[in-house]
Amino acid sequence: MSAALWPALLNGLTMGAIYALIALGLTLIYGVLHIINFAHGSLLMLAMYGVLLLFERTGTDPYLALIVMVPAMFVLGYGLQRFIIGPARHGRDENTILATLGISIVIENLAAWYFKSDTHQIATAYGDTMVDLAGALIALPRLLALAGAMVSCALLALFIRHSDTGRAIRAVAREPEGARAVGIDVAHVFAVSFGIGLACLGAAACFLLPAFYVSPMVGHSFVLLAFTVVVLGGMGSFTGSLVGGLLIGIVESLGGLLLGESLGQIGVFIVFVGVLLFRPTGLFGHHA
Amino acid sequence: MPEHAALPPAMARHAAPVAPGSQCVELRRLNHAVARSIRTLSGLGVLFVLAPFVFHGEFQITFLTLALYVTLLGVAWNMLGGFAGQYSFGHAIFFGVGAYAAAIVQVQGGLNAWFGWVAGMCLGGLAGAAVGAVSFRYGLRGSYFALVTLAIAEVCRIIANSISITGAGVGMMIPLQPGLAHLQFAGKLGYYYWILAMVTVALALSSWVRHSRFGAALAAVRDNEESARALGIDATALKVMASALSGALMASAGVFYLQYFHYIDPTLVFGPAVSVQALLAAIVGGLGSVLGPLIGAIALAVLNEIGAHLFGGIPEFSMVLYGILLILIVRFMPHGLARGVAPLVRRLRGASGRREDTAGA
Lengths: 288, 361
Fold this sequence. Notes:
heterodimer; A: mainly alpha; two-stranded antiparallel sheet; 2 strands; globular; B: mainly alpha; about 80% helix
């Protein structure tokens, strides 16, 4: 048991880093627009297929695909918010979550039809390379995913903190009316935030693909986990997403070790429902 | 908002003292609304009872049956989402609880299907009360409530997939034994009248909720919970009650599904498709209106057929159309089709009303 503990912990940590990156997009969107993007999972799936197609059709390495996928997802997110989600709001948050639900239904079923329910995985030269970390063997792509997710989170935090766009995003998140008054184009900032949220998904997809398979349902397995991370860390909190992501990765991995693969997933949901009920502000959140 | 026009006066009635005369007028207006909805419902009921004599083809009966089944899903969702304003994204919880309870009673317990139906509805209602109690007790609303219901549905699916009493991933099949005593029917017509009866009861219940003090208080909570509480309304208890009613209705739809298809598995009954259908019927039709879910379900059924003709039976495409419809409705008709149709009906009614007036004079 204890021999299996360290590899399980390490595995949980690498998964957790990916969850954190996905959750970062979600939390940014929530923090600025105050909506939960229910299409987050299906958009991640879409990004993963994007990486897969780039690899299969043009032979682009998944890590190189970052250059294409991150901007592409940004543009998609900008367009979705500007032309579909934003106009559907009519001043009520309920309408926005319904619009994102509609988007997820469309994307998921189009994918289920076009890609069938087969699972795909890509074979790279380094895909099976194992690295020995203090006695635990871990696949190189997973280690790279951990590093990549960490670097992405750091870059995003720097961007939000120090760039003009980042400042505008923070201003709109705190006080949309005030931001409008000082000349910030709020609808544009909303769309930019949504775009950045999806750009995180583009990056996550590139880091995921060398190690994980893709199927039209893959979004589901990530999205509830990402929701859990966001809720656990506190809606809108960056540090919270990072810590929450790593924690959830470990809970899932240890749950699987103790309860078996299928029931192990329940551990995460118990954390999720528990946090929602008893501490909806999360570990790092300030207000519900 | 004409749909809720009867509500503010109804609230005012128990908020502030009013002159006896005006109270009388209010009561008469309320009774008038109840009488009108009873007339509408019974008229529709007669139409649907007679429908199979006109549309007697197998295809037409199946179409009507499935449209009524989706209506029941929508009415159940509307009870909580429309009247109480709490959007659930995991209503499959109650559907699955009902279906599994009925199946377990029959398969593991060897008991009669009618008993299974009752057990399913009771457990569905209990599940509704339980989910409502934990969520609303802790003040979950909006996106948070949608999330927690989504997560609970997923937990239910995983549990049903893992334990043996539900047959795990294999699912459950009930024995084929046609006959009213077993709630199974040899022909499609039996199922049609059964679901029609359930929808009628559900719509009558909806209509009562809509026009009762209970419904008025629910609407007050939905529109402004803080001021409703200030008026002395126990918002949590009301929402839990709405959730229980909604759960019981959803469970009866689950039992119908089980008896109609004879087979259930975790993804069929706890998966997102059922939750989406329930939500769509209510939202497309018009939230918080009595007949909205019926209108929504018929619109969905028609869309389904159009999809089947256009895309030749690719099942995913009907879901794609549903998704597009949801986006379009939220974007361009956020109050649903019922609100689009209602003014038309009112104008016709108004025209005939004026004729009566002139005839009387």
